[in-house]
Amino acid sequence: MFKKWHRLMTRLRQGSATVKIEGRTLTVDELSVVLAGTIRDWVVAGDVVVVVIDMETPENVFGVSRKGAVVWQVPNLRSVEYEGQGMIGITRGYYNVSAADGHRVVLHGDDGEFVEVDARTGTPLTNVAASRRGRRPW
User: Fold this and answer.
1) Which of 15, 101, 115, 128 is spaced 20 to 30 A from 78 at the CA atom?
2) 0.85 cut: is pTM over it?
3) Residue 89: how many CA atoms within 13 Å on its side-chain side?
């Protein structure tokens, strides 16, 4: 019961931002934005709240300013180039987000892959294919 409630409504003060989550609605310092899906995970990174919504598309991560505006959406990384070869990137939605340091966050896919992103712009800082290096594809 707690997990279900916690997923529907979370209120937390992180840094100097007050963040409240209710289903698809994100409220940052009393300014709200309604996203396309239920909010699965979030983290405050500087002046941006990075939000993962519950959708089966790799474009399910958004950066939201403290003014309640969506400032970026993670780019489509379904295919990437790595060491001169075309490779499969993220084909399903990201599962969660964690803070790295400063303005960097790490987006985690449900197959164990990850990509580091600039929280201010949504620009990938690492290659998702590199996170699979040394792992079997099955």
Assistant:
1) 101
2) no
3) 21
SS3 call for 21: strand
Classify the phi-psi angles of 68: left when phi > 0, otherwise alpha if psi is within -120 to 50, otherwise beta.
left
In 10 A of CB 119, how many CB atoms?
Answer: 25
**Residue in 118, 113, 109 with CA at minimum distance from that of residue 50:** 118
CA distance 109 to 33: 24
Rounded Cα distance between 59 and 6, Å, is 24
- Pick from 23, 22, 24, 3: nearest CA to 11: 22
E-only strand ranges, 54-121: 61-65, 70-73, 79-82, 85-88, 94-99, 104-109, 114-118
Interval 27-78: pLDDT, tens: 998 899 999 999 999 999 988 999 999 998 889 999 999 888 999 999 887 7
Q: Is the predicted pLDDT of residue 16 greater than 70, yes or no?
A: no
Nearest 5 degrees, angle CA 123-CA 6-CA 104?
A: 20
